[in-house]
Amino acid sequence: MSTRLHLTVRQLQIFRAVAELGSTSAAATAIALSQSATSAAINELERTLGLRLFDRVGKRLLLNDNGRALLPRALNVMDGVAGIERWATAGPLQIGTLRIGASTTIGNYLLPGILARFRERLPLDTQDRWDSRVTIANTASIVEQVSALRVDLGLIEGPCHASDLVVEPWLQDEMVVVAAPTHPVLKAACGRPPQLSRRALRQVSWLLRESGSGTRETVERLLTPYLHHLRAAIEFGNPEAIKRAAACGLGFACISRYVVDDMLASGDLIAPAVRLPRLVRTLYLITHPDKQFTRGMTLLIEHLRAMQA
Q1: Number of domains comprising the chain
Q2: Three-class secondary structure of residue 137 per DSSP
Q3: What is the pTM of this model?
Q4: Do residue 92 and residue 152 come from a single domain?
């Protein structure tokens, strides 16, 4: 006969605080509880589960394998409790708070318009009954936050290397090679618009994103089969800096058309003809399989999928 475990939401809240802050003293301060009560709650949780959740290193408490496995489940339970509270106070009109993670290009150039159109699609009596909290970071960081259930869903522009997530192809994004019209390689090229050989592209310096960026991984995957190696000039943490550096003549860039359409239209950048296949990458929608979908999440995901048409 199975033994029922008597867990409480408060135990899970204390566990989360200790896991995130690394000590019972810091957690006690954060959750307005005494250190002794915090320690007792952690000890009781470990006894109830029959598992050690932390490694004790001096005064630090570090999650072990059991603790790391419990944390996303605990977060999911607390999400569910918070959803019940919101549902009870707001009733059927509640959309709730949407926690969205987006990698840099998507978050800066696509997501604001996506959320504006999503709001317009909602019934009038719900348009003011929801809000979003958007986290913008590189792909690796967004994948990690979806895995840890710190955001409800992620929109990423590079491959997802986490095997525990649900990964859905979302949109196609054209990548274009751009440079300033005054760049010496373009001024020396024949033809209007200039055409560049692969040999010429091997000689130029490239403006790249940082390691961990989905754009960086995609650019290397798309270009290195043809150019063999990219001569890195400067690494930047966001695409806006890359396109402005390219416009200043600091190097070539391979970047999303969403990012550079404005500078291509103004003439600050040009996209020379290159002897390469069309460069396209896939943007992805990622979710955690244990995430409980709220009404708001369901509506937003339906909106995102509708964009594929």
Answers
A1: 3
A2: strand
A3: 0.68
A4: yes
Would you say how long the chain is, in residues?
A: 309
* Residue 293, burial from CB neighbour count under 10 angstroms (0-12, 13-18, 19+): middle
Q: What tens digit of pLDDT does each residue of 238-293 get?
A: 999 999 999 999 999 999 999 999 999 999 999 999 989 999 999 999 999 988 88
Could you identify the residue written with the tokens 């440079």? 179
Identify which of 9-13, 227-231, 280-284, 289-293 has the greatest average pLDDT.
280-284
Separation of alpha carbons 200 and 82, rounded Å: 57
Helix, strand, coil tally for the chain in percent (to 5): 50, 25, 30
Could you tell me the residue range of the domain that residue 125 belongs to?
Answer: 88-171+283-306
CATH of the domain at 192: 3.40.190.10
For the chain, the distance separating the N- and C-terminal CA atoms, rounded to the nearest angstrom, is: 53
Alpha helices in 129-211 (DSSP H): 139-147, 184-188, 198-203
Burial tier of 136 (Cβ tally within 10 Å: 0-12, 13-18, 19+): middle
Q: In the listed set 60, 81, 102, which residue is the last one of a domain according to the structure?
A: 81
